[in-house]
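Hi, here's the filled form for the chain we discussed.

Project: internal
Contact: R.S.
Residues: 285
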Amino acid sequence: MGNRILSVSAAPYDGYPLGATLDSLANCGVSHVEPAYIVGYTEPFTEEAFSKTAATAYRRAMAASGLRCHAVSAHMDLGTPDALEVFRRRMDFARTLGAGIINTNASLRVRAKQFRMNIDALAQHGAAIGLTIGLENPGNGEDDLVNTAADGVELVRAIGSPQVRLNFDPGNRVSHMKDDKDAAEDGLLALPSSAHFHIKDVKRRAGGWYFVTLGAGDIDYRPVLSGLTGFPGLPISIEIPLRLHRGLDALPVRRPEAVALAAIETTLRASLNYVRGSLSDTVSE
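And the returned structure, exactly as it came back:
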């Protein structure tokens, strides 16, 4: 068994009950699930999803399926006035699940001043509970504090807290900047400043960007996976939100129906094999 944690996001199971999702992941040979709470990516949720009762239920469901949690995706804009209260609740939820990392967007650039005030307090809370915040580059085309890896590296440096790092996603870089030529290069640039790393592939088609099996899209992940070998302790997560695609405006579009379970499992098994074939140090049990 290796020492790099490889998680798989629950995002492709949008529309399925939690138990069925976790059992399917376990059947695919997954050891760690990354719960996904991302507006526009999944079914709508309320603040009750982050309650102590909800956290306890999630922990029990993971135990029943034999899964663990190292990272949680709970994306929001940390530059809003209520971000301290709202995101602290998400942080406590993630820690209750056993996670050491919570992934989120940073903020729209126009909210930079409020973000800087909020992130200092959130970093202190992270230090108190043992949780690292992974700032992720978005894919929706809106001007963010982390449009590119260079933005993210500089932002993390300026914040100057070990509790705030990057969770870079080359797949988001493609639709956000509307090109794929620099996605792999940006991923490599982000690695030294990252606490976590998302891996998903996208294919440009007439209607926008579609999420596909790793290795079947427009991103050449070979240099990224090669670069990851130089960071053996860096946890990674496969995130393939199959129920949606990004339109030509880069905004997410969800299908009205859930993706067939067999199709999800086929995609995940092939993607897991793709990553494990290049990174032999991933945890597989």
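Let me know if anything looks off before we file it.
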